[in-house]
Amino acid sequence: MSEFSVFFVLSRFELGGLERVHLNILPKLIDVGVQAQIVTSYIHSNAESMLEKDTPVRVLGGGRFSFFFRLFCVLRAQQANFIFTSANDIGCFVLLFRRFFWPHSKIIWSQHLSISGPLNASRGFKRFHLLFERWLMRRLLLKADAVIAVSRAVADDISRSVVAHPKLKVILNPVVSDGFTERCSVDVEWPWPDYSVPTVIFVGRLAPVKRVDLLIEAFSKVKSSMDARLLILGDGPEAGKLKRLAGKHDLSKVCSFVGHQDDALPWIQRSDLLVLCSVSEGFGLVLVEAMACGVQVVSTDCPDGPSEVLAGGRFGRLVPTNDICSLAQAIEQSLIAPLVDRAKLQERAADFSVDRAVSQYLEVLETVARQ
C-alpha cells in the first residue's frame, strides 16, 4: 500500500457529515501505508476543532474559480495515484481534464447525496445549474474508474438519474470508530439540574432542509401531554428564527439551544431520543451515532438515507416529511415505549464501523490499481 498516493478532494471543509467521514477514513488508510491527504479550498473556523494536528490537509485557498485553477495545478504537478471526488462539480472537472493533464491518476467518484432529490427541490438558476451538472455527469461518469455510493438508495438514484456504472459499489458511511465509548463519557454542561425528565435531542445544522421548526412544533404538542425536554445542538442561519418559535410556544424552560459542540456524542448519550426531521439527507450519520449510544431514534422518511439506516423502520420510527402530527405521535410513543432495546440498536450500529468501511475502501483501491 505504501506506493499508493491518494487525494480526497473537497470543495470546502466545514462542520458536517462528509468531513467526519473523511476524517474517520484517513488515519486508518495512513496506518496501512497509504499516502493519503485531504485537498480543499478552505477550512471553516467551526471545523478547525475536528482536525488533529497531524491530519494531512492541503488548503489551496481562493474563491470558486481560483480554487479550480489551483486544483488543476496541484493535480497536474503531483499526479496522485488516486483522486477521490466528493462533489459533482469536482468530479466532472477531474474527469473532463484527466486524459490531457493527469492521465496516470485513477478517478474514484464518491457520491454522498442523491442527484434527483436536490434537483427536484431546486428552482431558478440553481435548477439550471443542477441540470447542466447532471448533463455533464451523464457524459463523464462512465470514465470514472470506480463509483462509491454511501447507501443503496444513493446508488439506485445514480443508476436512474445518471447512468448505471458497471463498477459502482455501496460502502456505508463509517461512523463507529476507536474510542467511541470514551468520547460518550466526556462531561458536558447539561442545561438542566437533573436527568429526571425524558430528553429529546436534535443534532445538526440549523438550516431550512433540516426542518427543526417542524420538530419544535411537534414537541409543543408532546409537551402538552407529558413532561419532556428538547435539546438542540448546532448552529446555522435559522438559529434566531427557531429560538423565537420556541419562545412563541412558551418552551423556554424546557427547550435549550446549546449551539455548536465539538463532539455531540456525550450529549446524545445523556438523552432519551434523537430526532432527525429533514426533508432530505444523503445518509443520516447522527442516526447511527444515536444507535451506537443505545438511544432511540425517530426520523422522517426522507430521501435518501434514513430508511436504509433504520432498516425500513426496524430500528427507529419513520414518519412522513413535513407532518407535524405524525412526528409528535412518534416522539411520544418512543418516549413511552421504546421501539428497540439498547443492545439491538448497538448491534445495528456496528454495521457502520470505520474498520469495515476502510477494508472496503482498500479493496476498491487494490481493484482499481490492477485495472
Please describe what this structure looks like:
The chain has 15 helices and 13 strands. It is of the alpha/beta class and 371 residues long. The protein folds into two domains: 5-174 and 353-369, Rossmann fold; 180-351, Glycogen Phosphorylase B (Rossmann fold). The longest helix has 17 residues, at 124-140.
Write a concise synopsis of the structure shown.
The chain is of the alpha/beta class and 371 residues long. It has helices at 17-31, 64-78, 88-101, 116-121, 124-140, 152-161, 180-184, 212-223, 239-248, 265-269, 285-292, 306-309, 324-336, 342-349, 354-369; strands at 5-10, 35-40, 57-59, 82-85, 106-111, 146-149, 168-170, 199-203, 229-233, 255-259, 273-276, 296-300, 317-319.
| N-end to C-end Cα span | 16 Å
The computed structural class is: alpha/beta
Secondary-structure element series: EHEEHEHEHHEHEHEHEHEHEHEHEHHH
User: Compute the gyration radius: what is it?
Assistant: 21 Å
Number of domains: 2
* Arithmetic mean pLDDT: 93
Estimated share of beta-strand residues: 15-25%
Secondary structure layout plus pairing:
Elements: E1 5-10, H1 17-31, E2 35-40, E3 57-59, H2 64-78, E4 82-85, H3 88-101, E5 106-111, H4 116-121, H5 124-140, E6 146-149, H6 152-161, E7 168-170, H7 180-184, E8 199-203, H8 212-223, E9 229-233, H9 239-248, E10 255-259, H10 265-269, E11 273-276, H11 285-292, E12 296-300, H12 306-309, E13 317-319, H13 324-336, H14 342-349, H15 354-369
Parallel strand pairs: 1-2, 1-4, 2-3, 4-5, 5-6, 6-7, 8-9, 8-11, 9-10, 11-12, 12-13
